[in-house]
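User: Reviewer 2 asked us to show a designed sequence for the structure in our supplementary figure. I'm pasting the structure tokens here. Could you produce the per-position amino acids so we can include them in the response letter?
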């Protein structure tokens, strides 16, 4: 068995000694959280690390319980689960679906809170999430419903996504405007502003790093729908990076620097997303014309039976 196979078996069925360690650490972390609460230290910046570790080990503990009772052993025989671990293309579509669900959840909650609190800031944030959710959904549905019809539908999904990114570059202009006018207001629950900024910073850099890594990796494949998904994720990461720097400057009270950086970085992000979208839209139309003129727009793919195309 190769290294990937051994890793897969280890993740599906972790040894009992490892499960016991995970459960022990989780109990200790829960005790630490309770202790912090009663000592009045729950809002300290360093306490965020304890909360994050507690959540992470809670998820690991739940997984260990499932593995001990045999759920993971039975699940490993599922074709889709094996494909998720071994197939980059399939995994990319799953991540895109989860991201789209997150966007939709944000939209629903954001609309409710924005209406109740009459927050213009939340309203414009919801607007950009709508465009992102639509772009991801278009790619997923196109690939899922037309896997047996050649490259034409993937090219169309790529082209439509380019148009969506062009629209996204316009949708974030109200966000930039409110940031420049210092009307981006935040409410923090249970944690301090500094802790919130640190969490957002970690999230933003991880998101950007993963997006850049995926942009490099997707070049190994010839599926235009994968290009579309990764470009959407990259645009989303750029917006998150802009939101991070805007939040940092606001919370640290650097008004003079914010007056320069906010419009500059915001305009740069908007322009970059527009350029990416324009390139996707233009190149997609050109490739569709070329494909149609060559007579291969209905060329069957190697994936049949309604399955999603794969990258490996």
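Assistant: Here is a per-position design you can include in the supplement:
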């Amino acid at each position: 068995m190769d290294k990937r196979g051994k890793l897969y078996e280890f993740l599906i069925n972790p040894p009992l000694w490892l499960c016991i360690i995970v459960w022990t650490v989780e109990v200790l972390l829960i005790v630490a959280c309770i202790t912090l609460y009663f000592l009045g230290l729950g809002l300290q910046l360093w306490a965020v690390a304890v909360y994050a570790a507690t959540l992470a080990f809670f998820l690991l503990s739940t997984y260990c319980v499932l593995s001990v009772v045999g759920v993971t052993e039975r699940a490993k025989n599922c074709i889709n689960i094996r494909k998720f671990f071994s197939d980059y293309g399939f995994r990319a579509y799953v991540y895109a679906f989860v991201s789209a669900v997150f966007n939709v959840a944000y939209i629903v909650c954001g609309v409710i809170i924005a209406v109740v609190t009459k927050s213009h800031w939340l309203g414009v944030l919801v607007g950009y999430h709508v465009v992102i959710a639509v772009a991801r959904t278009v790619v997923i549905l196109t690939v899922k419903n037309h896997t047996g019809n050649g490259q034409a539908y993937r090219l169309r999904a790529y082209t439509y996504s380019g148009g969506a990114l062009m629209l996204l570059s316009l949708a974030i202009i109200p966000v930039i405007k409110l940031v420049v006018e210092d009307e981006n207001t935040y409410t923090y629950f249970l944690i301090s502003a500094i802790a919130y900024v640190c969490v957002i910073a970690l999230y933003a850099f991880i998101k950007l790093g993963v997006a850049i890594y995926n942009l490099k990796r997707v070049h190994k494949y010839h599926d235009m729908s994968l290009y579309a998904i990764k470009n959407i994720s990259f645009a989303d990461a750029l917006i998150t990076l802009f939101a991070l720097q805007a939040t940092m400057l606001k919370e640290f009270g650097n008004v003079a620097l914010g007056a320069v950086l906010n419009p500059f970085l915001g305009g740069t992000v908007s322009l970059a997303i527009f350029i990416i979208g324009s390139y996707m839209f233009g190149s997609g139309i050109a490739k569709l014309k070329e494909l149609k003129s060559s007579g291969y727009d209905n060329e069957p793919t190697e994936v049949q039976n309604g399955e999603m195309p794969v990258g490996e």
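For the response letter, you might also mention the following. DSSP finds twelve helices and no strands in the chain. The radius of gyration is 23 Å.
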